[in-house]
User: Fold this.
Amino acid sequence: MTTVAFEAFFADPPLLHYWPNKKQWNTGGFSGPSLRELHTLVIREAGDRPRIRETGAGNTTIAMLLARPAELVSIAPCQDLFDRILAYCDSHGISTAALKPRIERSELALPPLADREIAADTCFDVGIIDGGHGWPTVFVDFCYLHAILRPRGLLLVDDIQLHSVAELARFLQEDPGFELVTTLAGGKALVFRKLRDQRFLHDFGGQPYIQRMSRRAASPLAET
Assistant:
């Protein structure tokens, strides 16, 4: 890959996504500067040849390939999206050897992936949650990615303007097992660092956000 191709991507990311409601192609939720910032962060924090997992795919996939990962597992139920990613990379000399696309819903793909990592006692370095944004998908993604993310690993949570994702972000901001590293994309994406060497979270008694919200609503279903 040439320096020209590298700079061209961040200056002008490809139009990989089509939004029917707007009837137009777009680059997705990250601008070129945000993609560059994410790429730089991964290079700085995750070191050489990081192992990366992401739910959702698009220009973040290309930005992560430019970080020269040892392995990039990208999960999205959209073959034609991966076709566009591969076509762009091929035409710009970007290696896709590390990319392992999973054409599947993340709720189905992540459990066996986590089983294999746990059985092998291995972890990955960087996780991106940017797939399904409905309830409970974002929490399913987090549950399994957290279980196989290494201590000090990075976890990006995108689209916190949506209530489902914002709830996860609020939880992580109050949990002592995580620290906020930075914000991206105008504040709609947050990057956290996992602090604890554990695969599973504490039960509700060890979750400050759940404890606080429970005190606010002693009978949360009473008004339904």
